[in-house]
Design a protein that fits this description.
By secondary structure, this protein is an alpha/beta fold. The chain has 2 domains: about 1-205, NAD(P)-binding Rossmann-like Domain (Rossmann fold, 3-Layer(aba) Sandwich), CATH 3.40.50; about 225-435, 3-Layer(aba) Sandwich (Rossmann fold), CATH 3.40.50. The protein has 17 helices and 14 strands. It has helices at about 10-20, 35-40, 50-60, 70-75, 95-110, 125-145, 165-170, 185-195, 205-235, 240-250, 270-285, 290-310, 340-350, 360-365, 375-380, 400-405, 425-430; strands spanning about 1-5, 25-30, 65, 80, 115-120, 150-155, 175-180, 200-205, 320-325, 350-355, 370-375, 385-390, 410-415, 430-435. It has a 6-stranded parallel beta sheet with strand order 3-2-1-4-5-6, with helices on both faces. A 6-stranded parallel beta sheet has the order 11-10-9-12-13-14. Strand 7 (about 175-180), helix 8 (about 185-195) and strand 8 form a beta-alpha-beta unit. The chain is globular and about 70 Å long.
Length: about 450
């Protein structure tokens, strides 16, 4: 099938490349000319394991193309995915300006049946608004051309991709959710995903839109819940790892997303939680539970900072080494990364920061100042008063901490991801502080 994907960020690029991988002819669109130029050269502007190899393969066999022209993409495609950004406004509501602009451009270009599919995370009722925008602009176009009406459908197909494993998630979906209002739209979407043989959830557009917000908000709730439990563990002497293990064996609960740490970040959870709270308020419901989920997440960073202050005593002029900057492993994404707030808070108290991350340094430089970036953990540790673990990169598990210890001023490690939960650092002689390990 001929498919267009408008927006070549994380979601749009992964979607476009993977759709080509399962047999479709795909044209990806973005208004950023520099980005499109980079992609045409088979270079991926983001770090996502496995993505660049697939992009090179399907560019070469011409199943995948890139353009800055929505007009070109619309004319050549039957299905058009909208995967543009939906940034948060100051009040937490999603800014749908880019979605509206794309819908308008599609309308003034389409000359035959098109299925327009929401892929961006959008609040419920966006599908209706897209349809209204297209119908209004299409009506004006038809009047000018004096031609007959043109048929189209709008559908919702939310994404559930995790940064760092997005290609795997696309190719092995837990489920594919489609929100449709016609049998024709359902048939096309089923055909698109047929090679994956997925479990399909078919519903109306508003329900599909809600499924994405509800899913991310529930996962954020699990994270904040276990972080609240970690706070209790620290005060009464419990071990959150054992608590999470005991909870996780219950099939009704499950172990996933019960990892205590310095809080969730990234482009999805913070934005989606804020947007869902705002959507609920507009509908007349005060989502107090979700507001507290957000509060607990912010408190987790503050609690970690207080722990550092307590153990270091004086933060001013201390040299603090930070292992990991990205909001999670296997990505270079710094959006809403907990490391930002933690580092800036310590800098405000006069700390000197050294940092290392396998992939996120270039993006970190855009949001963090006055940091010495190091080439590896061993250079980082030299003369440090303590180390902070803020991202759970696998390569950190293989660090030679005996070597690290010899170059540090003080042997203190604050593990914000409980990466070293087996007490090996304590055995080496480090003063080790994890999250919820009963050490307060």
């Amino acid at each position: 099938m001929n498919i267009a994907v408008v927006g070549s960020g994380y979601v749009g690029l992964v979607t476009g490349v993977c759709l080509a991988h399962i047999g479709h002819d795909v044209i990806c669109v973005d208004i950023d000319e520099a980005k499109i130029k980079t992609l045409k050269q088979a270079k991926v502007p983001i770090y996502e394991p496995g993505l660049e190899d697939l992009l090179k393969k399907y560019l070469k066999n011409k199943r995948l193309r890139f353009t800055t022209s929505i007009k070109e993409a619309t004319k050549e495609s039957t299905a058009i995915f909208i995967a543009v950004g939906t940034p948060s406004k100051k009040n937490g509501e999603a800014d749908l300006t880019y979605v509206e602009n794309v819908a308008r451009e599609i309308a003034v270009t389409m000359d035959s049946y098109k299925l327009i599919i929401e892929k961006s995370t959008v609040p419920a009722d966006t599908g209706r608004r897209i349809e209204r925008t297209i119908r209004l602009n299409l009506k004006n176009k038809i009047k000018q051309e004096k031609k007959g009406d043109r048929e189209f459908d709008v559908a919702s197909n939310p994404e559930f991709l995790r940064e760092g494993s997005a290609v795997h998630d696309f190719m092995n979906p837990d489920r594919v959710v489609i929100g449709v209002e016609s049998k024709k739209a359902e048939k096309i979407l089923r055909e698109i995903y047929k090679p994956l043989k997925p479990k399909m959830v078919v519903t109306n557009i508003k329900s599909a839109e809600l499924i994405k917000h509800a899913s991310n908000s529930f996962l954020a709730t699990k994270i904040s819940f276990i972080n609240a439990i970690a706070q209790i563990c620290d005060h009464i002497g419990g071990d959150v790892l054992k608590v999470a293990e005991g909870m996780g064996y219950d099939k009704r609960i499950g172990r996933a997303f019960l990892n205590a740490g310095v809080g969730y970040g990234g482009s999805c959870f913070p934005k989606d939680v804020d947007a869902f709270i705002r959507l609920s308020e507009k509908s007349g419901y005060n989502f107090r539970l979700l507001k507290e989920v957000r509060n607990v997440n912010e408190e987790q960073k503050s609690s970690f900072i207080r722990l550092i202050e307590d153990k270091l005593w004086i933060v001013k002029n201390k040299v603090i080494g930070v292992l990991g900057l990205a909001f999670k492993a296997d990505t270079d994404d710094m959006r809403n990364a907990p490391s930002i707030d933690i580092i800036q808070a310590l800098q405000a108290e006069g700390a000197k920061i050294r940092a290392y991350d396998p992939q996120a340094v270039n993006n970190a430089k855009k949001v963090l100042e006055d940091i010495i970036y190091c080439k590896d953990p061993y250079e980082l540790a030299k003369d440090c008063d303590c180390l902070l673990i803020l991202t759970e990169w696998d390569e950190f598990k293989d660090i030679d901490f005996t070597k690290i210890k010899k170059s540090m001023k003080q042997d203190i490690i604050f593990d914000g991801r409980n990466l070293y939960s087996d007490n090996r650092l304590g055995d080496i002689g480090f003063e080790y502080h994890g999250i919820g390990r009963g050490q307060v």
